[in-house]
Design goal:
about 0% helix; mainly beta; seven-stranded mixed β-sheet
Length: about 120
Amino acid sequence: VQLVESGGGLVQPGGSLRLSCTASGFTFSDHDLTWYRQAPGKEREFVALISSAADLTYYVDSVKGRFIISRDNGAATLSLQMNNLKPEDTAVYYCFARLPSGSYWGQGTQVTVSS
């Protein structure tokens, strides 16, 4: 199982970024997928989840209305569109999959929101 995030970077407050997570080694379309983030000195926190068929999504309150989680089952790709970014969104963002064989994390991608 491999999860590889990309798309992070430095952005000004109010800006946008789109994160991607490319997956391999499992049947992507069978499983719910999640984005987490970890800010410096803080615990890793849940950001958003999408169901296997993309018919259900859940968000932490702090990103509702600003972030959109989506997936392309044909391309085995999970995405997170982040709009109106705030300095408090600065963190390393991880994609996560809980499978019958275990729990898997990507290596993370850094998002820095600063002027």
